[in-house]
Amino acid sequence: MPEGVFTAPLKRPDHLGEDWLEPKQTEYDSDDDAIWNDLFARQMEVLPGRAATAFMQGLEKLDLGRGGVPDFGDLSAELGRLTGWSVVPVPMLIPDHVFFWHLANRRFPAGNFIRTRETFDYIQEPDVFHDVFGHVPMLTDPVYADYMQEYGKAGWKAMRHNRLKALGSLYWYTVEFGLLQEAPGDIRAYGAGILSGPTEVVYAVEAESPNRIMLNVDRVMRTDYVISDLQPTYFVIKSFEDLYQQTVERDFDRLYRTLDPGFTYANTAVIDVDDVLHPGTLEYTLRGGRGSGAKAV
Ligand SMILES: [Fe+2]
Predict the structure, then answer these.
(1) Which tens digit of pLDDT belongs to each residue from 112-158?
(2) C-alpha of residue 272 to centroid of ligand 1, in Å
(3) The pTM is what?
(4) Cα(167) to centroid of ligand 1, in Å?
(5) Does 150 show up as a binding residue in the annotation?
(6) Is 220 in contact with 175 (CB distance < 8 Å)?
């Protein structure tokens, strides 16, 4: 396993049950609340006009800017009214089968801890800001909420066919790094990995470097991804209905039987069948990406 890649621990911490849920949410102090507020304010400088309308509306519906780390009970009460979802606290990344089981039951497991000032700009393990600010607003959208549940159900099939990597790609290119075409020429981000940090929002939506390709579920599930740098390629959906339909109508049993165990396409590839919205220059990636000093343009 490459250094710095976080995975769920093999052993469940002693105080947790089989659902891996914390008995209650962490109590945050005023420093923690200040970190949330500062992260929130920083995102609000870059998100308007770049984040999907559904995401911005979700922030408002859940009043995530009320100040301090949100209470999961309050969020769950509101989300429950809107789409029947809840937010439940977990200590860290949890095993895949547990994660899928929660999603399939419309529970979103959210990291309990919040980053420190030292790790303010970049953390690899998802904290409460990434999980709640990044993911939860989209769960107020009824169609997206259904998609997330279907994803959880698809997880069980992927495990039976030993094709978790392929399904992981779908999560990556939609839930974490998905783009939406709200109108011709109007590309917005809805993926939590993009929306919870300050750099990738502008890059994903506006930069020349990355490819932007219309999403096709089969194609995406054959495509590799990088986890520690800006993406060379983003996949764009026409609507959340489109994403939902592509997922529920696809016979995943059949698809998994035709997929190779590894990935067929590099994350920089543009292939014949792609409907390309923006052919990227790949300048950022080819110059060496993060750590090379390349500008995210
Ligand atoms: Fe995430």
Answers:
(1) 999 999 999 878 789 999 999 999 999 999 999 999 999 999 998 89
(2) 30
(3) 0.94
(4) 15
(5) no
(6) no
Question: Residue 97 annotated as binding?
Answer: no
Distance 151 CA to ligand 1 centre (A): 14
What does the alpha-carbon distance between residue 10 and residue 168 come to, in Å, rounded to a whole number? 19
Q: Would you call 172 helix, strand, or coil by DSSP?
A: helix
Pairing mode, if any, of strands 179-183 and 186-189?
antiparallel
Residue 130 CA, ligand 1 centroid: distance in Å: 6
Q: Which amino acid is present at 59?
A: L
How far is the C-alpha of 219 from the C-alpha of 261, rounded, in Å? 14
What does the alpha-carbon distance between residue 230 and residue 194 come to, in Å, rounded to a whole number? 9
Per the structure block, which two tokens stand in for 81? Answer: 């009214």
- Nearest residue to 200 via CA among 51, 97, 53, 18: 51
61 CA to centre of ligand 1 in angstroms = 20
| Residue 176 annotated as part of some ligand binding site | yes
Q: Is 162 left (phi over 0), alpha (psi -120 to 50) or beta?
A: left
Homologous superfamily (CATH) of 30-286 is Aromatic amino acid hydroxylase (1.10.800.10)
Q: Name residue 88's beta-bridge partners.
A: 109
List of residues 6+ apart from 124 with CB closer than 8 A = 4, 5, 6, 227, 228
Give the rounded percent of residues in the chain with a pLDDT score beyond 70: 97
The Å distance, Cα 126 to ligand 1 centre, comes to: 6
Structure tokens at 259: 């997929």
Please, are residues 68 and 29 in contact by the beta-carbon 8 Å criterion?
no
